[in-house]
Structures are given as structure tokens and as C-alpha cells.
Automatic annotation (TrEMBL):
Keyword Iron listed: yes
Stored InterPro entries: Calcineurin-like_PHP, CNP_phosphodiesterase-III, Metallo-depent_PP-like
SUPFAM superfamilies (alphabetical): Metallo-dependent phosphatases (SSF56300)
Name of this chain's protein: 3',5'-cyclic AMP phosphodiesterase CpdA
Pfam families in UniProt: Metallophos
Organism: Sphingomicrobium lutaoense
Length: 288
């Protein structure tokens, strides 16, 4: 069983330091295999914000955690149009490294991050044909028993964005087909500032056997309809438990728990009674 701390949309530059420290406290004491940040590490992609993000990552790595990050649309400069359209990722490359599609393979784990942020796309993301080819190539070499994880900032489907639905990624049909063909188990995203878990089987164009898992905004003030949140995920190819940790104004508490199981790695994930009970409890809380 692998353990991931799945964050997104930390937005250094408009972050709240007490929330940052609360997240750090949980990360430090959690025996996680990897800390994953699915984009939007900054608010305006200013060098000062990237410096804060880099220092934060260095701190986490100093505690012995492996960290995987991918760019989000806020990590592309918005006010400097020359940077945005000519060298949209130059600041990211300077502070975070030039590999914007990181690939990590460990015993029983294969994880690919894809950069979906584009200088010519203001808000929504895109997976290119070259990235789709890379996805197929990488996962084709993974061991048969490896948990297969895809990380990107923008959701591949129209997933919850507060009380509405966000936009699907550009080149969606080809990207979704590739995740199905590659046998991906978990698709971890952010962008919508809303935590949610979905079987791809239940989503338009999604007939694969993966779980699409969104993380909320970890510690920024860019709140939509829910307070800051992040996910703690325990998973292998047959069992996946997601704990949604939410900010209550003073500290992080467990808001919801989802658990899915399946008989073999090509079967569809099935929600357990614990997952259903958590959803019912959430609906009751929202109705109060």
C-alpha cells in the first residue's frame, strides 16, 4: 500500500501562513511515500512567489519526503506578456527544474506528471499529442503490478467547481483514451479548488478503470465553496482509501473518507459502505 499526500493550488503569494504551518505539521508526521502538488504553486508566477514555493519544497524534502510537482496555469506569468507568450515556463524551469513532465518509477509504483499549463491558454489546460505519446510510452514500460498514477493540474473531465462544473481539458478524447489504454489507476488533479472523487466509468468519455481524484486549494485564500483542503491517499491496484482533510478555522480535520476496491487491476473500482456513509454524512451537513 502506497501513501500520497495530494495537494494543489497552494498559491504562494496569497497564502495564509497558519494554514501552511498546519499542513506542514501533518506532512511532517505522516509516513508518506510521496508529496504531490498538482500545480498552481504560485499566484502570479512572480520570482518571489517561486522562491517561497521552492523553499517550502526544500523543507518537505528535508524531512525525507519525495516530492512531485507539475505546473498550473497560475505558474505562467499573467502580467508579463512577453514572458507569458514567448517563455511561459522560464521561471518554473529556473526554480522547479526543466522536467515539466516528471516520471518516477519505484518498486510497485509508476507515476507520471504532465504539464497542462500553456502560455496561449489563459485558464484551461491542454494535453498535447506528444504528451499522449509520452504517457503511452512511459506506462508501457511499467511493471505489471505497479500502481499507475497520472498527475496534472487540469481535470480531464468537467468535474465539480464549487456548485458548478469546470471545463474539461483540451484534447480530451485522445487524452482519456490514452489513460484507458495505459491502465492508469489514479488520476490526481486540482485547479477547481474543490475536492471530489469519481470513477472514470461514470464520467463522459470515460470508460476506463481509474479513479479521478481532485484536491482542493491547500492553503490559499482563493476559496470557492469549501474551505482549504487536501487529500491523504492510501492505495494499491486493488484498494484505494482517500481521506479529505479540511480546514476548520483552527486546524485540519478529516472531512470525508472515500474507499474503493476491486477484484483485479482491470476491473472497475467499487465504492465501499464506508465511502457511501461519508457521502451521506456530507450531504446531511450541507443541508443543515
Amino acid at each position: 500500500m502506497r501513501t500520497f499526500i495530494h495537494l494543489s493550488d497552494v498559491h504562494f503569494g496569497i497564502h495564509e501562513q497558519p494554514i501552511v504551518e498546519a499542513v506542514e505539521g501533518l506532512i511532517e508526521k505522516t509516513e508518506a511515500d510521496m508529496v504531490i502538488c498538482a500545480g498552481d504553486l504560485t499566484q502570479w508566477a512572480d520570482p518571489e512567489e517561486f522562491e517561497m514555493a521552492r523553499s517550502w519544497i526544500d523543507k518537505i524534502e528535508g524531512w525525507g519526503h519525495e516530492v512531485l510537482v507539475v505546473p498550473g496555469n497560475h505558474d505562467v506569468p499573467s502580467s508579463d506578456l512577453v514572458q507569458r507568450f514567448i517563455k511561459p515556463h522560464s521561471r518554473w524551469d529556473r526554480f522547479m527544474g526543466e522536467d515539466r513532465n516528471p516520471w518516477l518509477e519505484r518498486d510497485g509504483l509508476a507515476i507520471l506528471g504532465l504539464n497542462t499549463a500553456r502560455g496561449l491558454v489563459v485558464k484551461n489546460g491542454k494535453i498535447s499529442d506528444d504528451q499522449i505519446a509520452l504517457m503511452r510510452e512511459r506506462f508501457a514500460t511499467a511493471s505489471a503490478d505497479a500502481l499507475r498514477v497520472l498527475v496534472c493540474h487540469h481535470p480531464l473531465w468537467k468535474l465539480p467547481r464549487g456548485d458548478e462544473r469546470g471545463d474539461a481539458i483540451q484534447n480530451q478524447a485522445a487524452a482519456v483514451a490514452a489513460t484507458d489504454d495505459a491502465g492508469i489507476d489514479l488520476i490526481l488533479t486540482g485547479h477547481n479548488h474543490t475536492s471530489s472523487v469519481h470513477r472514470t466509468l461514470d464520467l463522459p468519455r470515460g470508460d476506463g478503470s481509474a479513479l479521478a481524484i481532485q484536491a482542493g486549494t491547500a492553503f490559499s485564500t482563493r476559496i470557492r465553496t469549501e474551505p482549504p483542503s487536501f487529500n491523504i491517499i492510501h492505495a494499491n491496484r486493488l484498494d484505494c482509501a482517500i481521506r479529505v482533510m479540511g480546514w476548520d478555522g483552527d486546524h485540519y480535520v478529516e472531512r470525508r473518507q472515500h474507499r474503493y476496491v476491486r477484484e483485479h487491476d482491470e476491473a472497475h473500482w467499487q465504492p465501499t459502505e464506508a465511502s457511501a456513509a461519508s457521502v451521506i454524512a456530507q450531504l446531511a451537513q450541507e443541508a443543515e
